[in-house]
Amino acid sequence: MRRMPMIVMAVVMLTAACSNDKSGSSGSAATDAKSSSLADRAGLSGKVNDKGTKTVTGSSPTISVEVDDFYFSPTFISAPAGSTVTLQIKSEGKAPHTFTADGAGVDEKLSPGDSKTVTITVPKSGAVAFFCKFHKSSGMQGAVVVPGPKGSGASSGGSGGSGGATTSGGSGY
């Protein structure tokens, strides 16, 4: 009879330990997209390996984006509506990746060590989601988002498709 409470206690402790483990590859913080305000507002679904947010100002900002195994850093880029954002993308991982933003017409393949430059026109509201075609299900996704109401970090719109993009440079794939 004494074994049953001990077994139940062990199962409860193991379950709690497993449910609190939100680490992804390389110790990255992984969140369910529905639990992340920015991911939700950007229209992302599933796992998101969140490596932070960078807020940009000005009419034509440039941001460095690290592409690694298996995340983008920063994961979210907050930029003024209608602005043009230049992303200097550098692959620092060991695996091949893509930087794909369907809503902006971007699909760049990156081998380890490659660099690319991508220019995205930020929509008037919402977001331009980006992801790695090979590792999206592993949480490798993010977005360029329009700031929302004060303190929210993003607009309340869904995933955008109204932004445009151009790509250039870097070593080929």
What's this entry about, in short?
This protein is mainly beta and 173 residues long. Helix content is 13%, strand content 35%.
Which features characterize this protein?
mainly beta; 13% helix; globular; 5-stranded mixed β-sheet; 2 helices; 173 residues; Immunoglobulin-like; 13 strands; 4-stranded mixed β-sheet
Topology:
Elements: H1 3-19, E1 30-32, H2 37-41, E2 47-49, E3 53-55, E4 62-68, E5 71-73, E6 76-78, E7 84-91, E8 97-101, E9 106-110, E10 115-121, E11 127-131, E12 141-145, E13 165-168
Parallel strand pairs: 3-6, 4-7, 6-12
Antiparallel strand pairs: 1-2, 4-5, 7-10, 8-9, 10-13, 11-12
Give an account of the 3D structure.
With 173 residues, this protein is mainly beta. It is built from two helices and 13 strands; from the N terminus they run H-E-H-E-E-E-E-E-E-E-E-E-E-E-E. The relative contact order is 0.19. The radius of gyration is 19 Å and the shape is globular. It starts with a helix and ends in a 5-residue tail after the last strand. It has a single domain, classed as Cupredoxins -  blue copper proteins (Immunoglobulin-like, Sandwich). The strands form four sheets. It has a five-stranded mixed beta sheet, with no helix packed on it. Strands 3-6-12-11 form a four-stranded mixed beta sheet. The protein has a two-stranded antiparallel sheet with strand order 1-2.
